[in-house]
Structure formats: structure tokens, C-alpha cells
Amino acid sequence: MEFLLDTVHIEDIKKYARIMPLSGVTSNPSIVKKEGQIDFFPHMRAIRAIIGDQASFHIQAVGQTTEAMIQDAHTILENVDDNVFVKIPTNEAGLAAIKQLKAEGVNVTATAIYTKFQGYLAMSAGADYLAPYYNRMVNMNINADEVIGELANQIARENSTTKILAASFHTVQQVNSAFEMGAQAATMGVDILKTGLSAPAIGAAINDFTADWESLYGKDSTIASIAKQPLHA
Ligand SMILES: O=P(O)(O)OC[C@H]1O[C@](O)(CO)[C@@H](O)[C@@H]1O
């Protein structure tokens, strides 16, 4: 199971690289826009420096034609590093770009996936990751669970190395569901992580444990402090 962050906000990436089992970072032009007019390549290299070589880093091509996407891919690899997964939208131009980039040995994430058909084609073209858009499918009355579940079944049937990197999440429940349907990876904004880890019930349970502990050993006592001053020494 891979958890990725769907942001290029440096402080958030630094913070959550410390907190979570971070498998990678994803971005797209809309995510980049949230940071304002950043110096694109130095910013991307700074993200790589934070997440390290073992994490997967997904950066999107913006060209509209096959040739433009391939040129974008080469430029990204030259200016960030060779391990980047270049995100290519799964339309006709994109599929042709995926085929060519895979023939060159480039890491590719097929993105903008709303249907099984797009996913099957991108898988056949050799994409390393498929990025189905969970919440956008839900908004279009497409059964996101079914799409992800069937893509996962096909991966299993073919013993394929392609992985599902589910994306476009608006709720914690959607992330759980994508994993349960067989996605190997999910990318999410920090809002999802904050919501999932800060439910009032979690804080209430921690407060109760603290109160019980302190009623026994005194205010601000810790495991370390009672080890230094054992009650029955
Ligand atoms: O629907 P949204 O929230 O814009 O998300 C689109 C998704 O597509 C991606 O570009 C795919 O990786 C993600 O970065 C993003 O989660």
C-alpha cells in the first residue's frame, strides 16, 4: 500500500515526510497553480531533495500533442531527474506518447482516467501507474469502485507490473474504498490526512489516557520520569 501526497507545497511535504509513511508526491498544473508562479524546476528539485530517491515523484506533461508531451517528458527528466514518473493524460495523443516513452524506458503515470477502457489501454501500452480520478468519477455518476476494482482484477489476471495510483479524493472514505477495491497506491491532499488523524474521538481517547496516568503518577509525569523515580524503589 502506497500513500502519496498530492501537493507541491514544500512545508507540507517536509511536515508529512516526517509524519507519514510517504511513498511519493504527485502534482498537476492545477496543484502547481496553488503555489503561485513558482520557479518550476528548482521547486521540483527541492521536493525531490525532501522525499529522496526511493520515493516516486509524478510530474505532469502539459503539451496537447504526442510530440509536445514527449518533449515535455524529456525536459522534465533533464531538469529534475531520470526517475520522475511523467504523467501523461490518457487520450489518443497521450496513449501514443505513453507507448513511445515506455519504449525509451521512461517512467510513466497514465492520468485523467475515468473509465476501465482508458485504464486497459494505458496498461497495455505499458504505463507504470494508472491514475483513476475517484471523486471526479463520483461527480459524473461513474462507479469509481467498479472501475478501480476491475482495473485491479485485470492487473491480477495478467500478472501485470502496472499499479493503480488512485487520485482525486475528497473524503477519507473514498481513499479507504480505493484501497479496498485493489488500488496499490493513493495520492491525497493534506486535508484528507488531517481529517483522518484528528477526529475528536481520537483526541478524547488520548486525553482520557493522560488523565488516568496523571491521577496515578502526578501531573506531567511520563514513562521516563517514573523510571527515574520508582515508587517502590
Ligand atoms: O479532482 P482533483 O482533486 O482535481 O484531482 C485530480 C487528480 O489527478 C492527479 O493529477 C492524478 O495524479 C492528482 O494530482 C489529482 O489528485
TrEMBL record:
Subcellular location: Cytoplasm
UniProt xrefs under SUPFAM superfamilies: Aldolase
GO MF term list: lyase activity
Pfam families membership: TAL_FSA
Lyase as UniProt keyword: yes
Keywords assigned by UniProt, alphabetized: Lyase, Schiff base
E.C. number: 4.1.2.-
InterPro entries hit by this protein: Aldolase_TIM, TAL/FSA, Transaldolase_AS, TSA/FSA_arc/bac
The protein's name in its UniProt record: Fructose-6-phosphate aldolase
